[in-house]
TrEMBL record:
Cellular component annotations (GO), alphabetically ordered: plasma membrane
Domain (NfeD1b N-terminal) ranges: 44-227
UniProt KW Ubl conjugation keyword: no
Domain NfeD integral membrane: 245-357
Positions of transmembrane segments: 239-259, 266-286, 292-310, 315-333, 339-360
Domain NfeD-like C-terminal: 389-443
Protein known as: Membrane-bound serine protease (ClpP class)
Length: 451
């Protein structure tokens, strides 16, 4: 029987109901918080220094690892002066296809190709004093790129800006020097935005003072963030695959071979050459651009070049040279870039060989390529006299011609040969043919004509 005592019954049931409600809310809230914490799996990925193919390879691994770990947020720490357009394009595509949210965090600079990468992120966060923009492409010599490249890059920048609702004209102004953008840029200048201006024009979504404020803005705890750093091999690959370093390695490699062929047995030049080629192939293999076939082709060529030192002729060496060059060019991330670097390296190698020849003379393998013997009068060499003026002249055989002998023509003793017939000494002869130093005579008849 239920008590109806007003003093204890009604308040007791109310108290029990309230307690049950509070426990239910607490339990639900606790589980909700736990699920929210579990869902937060942020990953920190550095995009630093130059943008090149080695960085592209690292980012491919980083995004694949983040997806494998179930990360729902990738923070790209961008601090770069720019780099290769081709690598930036591939990285932009990688970000577009990423299944998780991507935030670009810029605390220093994101110029040129770095701007293009940042524009692909779902959100751009900058710190005061940082910059974005200045995306005009230049070549290796520091000159403005070709108009076709400039136009294509402008379109790529506009498309990247439009992905997340940013003004494409601002992106274009970061590329086109002569473009006028009132209030932001005058013709003849390059548009670069500081953090405050970027925020004002929509090229930065949030400003923070430091990483802690970034985490607070994103709603994550610092302890939750897992950093994915490049491995030692990837760091070396990034260094080696940059165009400048790649060219230097090829120059050292080819010049070292030239020195070894110039003075076999010296050793140091050959060792430097092998180290340079080793770094070249290691970096490109790590970056995923070279295959073992390319390395094998190069090694076969190198062995054939060594074999040329012991085998007469040039065929083996020529085949070896072609194999080496093919292996090096195919291993590069771009065959055209590889061939350009090889052309520069071969030009410098020829200069090195010429300088060494001037200093030390012709030695080793190069003896097979260059005629060394000088035909000097002091050494007994006498140039053959042009005797075409003797054609049709008459003379007298001083010795028997069977068929070679000596004849007297206009008081000169001349070595001559008959046309095949025997000519006795004292016979009249006539010159019927002259080929260089070879004088051909025939016995003259009574009319002074050749028989």
């Amino acid at each position: 029987m239920i008590s109806t005592d007003k003093k204890f019954g009604y308040p007791l049931w109310r108290l029990l109901f309230l307690l049950q409600f509070l426990l239910l809310c607490l339990f639900t809230g606790w589980n909700s918080g736990e699920a929210s914490a579990a869902a937060q799996k942020p990953v920190w990925v550095p995009v630093e220094q130059g943008i090149e193919r080695g960085l592209e390879s690292f980012l491919q691994r980083a995004f694949a690892k983040a997806e494998q770990q179930g990360a729902d947020l990738v923070i790209l720490h961008i601090d770069t002066p720019g780099g290769e357009i081709g690598a930036a394009s591939s990285i932009g595509q990688l970000i577009r296809q990423a299944p998780m949210r991507v935030v670009a965090y810029i605390d220093n600079q994101a110029y040129s190709a770095g701007t293009y990468i940042a524009l692909h992120a779902d959100e751009i966060v900058m710190t005061p004093g940082s910059f974005i923009g200045a995306a005009t492409p230049i070549d290796l010599a520091g000159n403005a790129a070709d108009i076709k490249i400039l136009s294509a890059w402008s379109q790529q920048m506009e498309t990247a800006a439009a992905l997340n609702g940013r003004d494409p004209q601002i992106a274009r102004a970061m590329v086109q020097i002569e473009m006028n953008l009132p209030g932001l840029k005058e013709p003849g200048s390059v548009l670069a935005l500081d953090a405050e201006k970027a925020k004002a024009v929509g090229y930065a979504d949030q400003l923070v003072n430091n990483v802690n404020e970034l985490y607070q803005h994103l709603g994550v705890a610092g302890a939750q963030v897992q950093a994915i750093e490049p491995t030692l091999g990837e760091t070396i690959a990034r260094f080696v695959t940059s165009p400048l370093v790649m060219s230097v390695l090829l120059i050292i490699g080819l010049a070292g071979i030239a020195v070894e062929l110039f003075a076999p047995g010296f050793g140091i030049a050959g060792g430097l050459s092998l180290c340079a080629f080793g770094l070249y192939f290691f970096g490109h293999l790590m970056a995923g651009y070279a295959e073992w076939f390319h390395l094998g082709l190069f090694l076969i060529g190198l062995l054939l070049m060594v074999l040329e030192l012991f085998v007469p002729g040039m065929i083996v060496g020529l085949i070896g040279f072609v194999c080496m060059i093919s292996g090096l060019a195919l291993a590069a991330y771009d065959i055209r870039q590889g061939l350009l670097a090889l052309a520069l390296a071969m030009l410098i190698t020829v200069i090195v060989a010429v300088v060494l020849a001037k200093i030390y003379g012709i030695r080793g393998f190069w003896r097979k390529l260059i005629l060394e013997d000088a035909q000097r009068n002091e050494a007994g060499y006498v140039a053959a006299k042009d005797q075409r003026e003797l054609l049709g002249q008459h003379g007298l055989a001083l010795t028997p011609l069977r068929p070679a002998g000596i004849v007297n023509i206009q008081g000169m003793r001349v070595d001559a040969v008959s046309q095949g017939a025997y000519i006795e000494p004292g016979s009249s002869v006539i010159v019927v043919q002259v080929e260089g130093a070879r004088v051909v005579v025939s016995k003259a008849n009574s009319k002074g004509e050749g028989e």
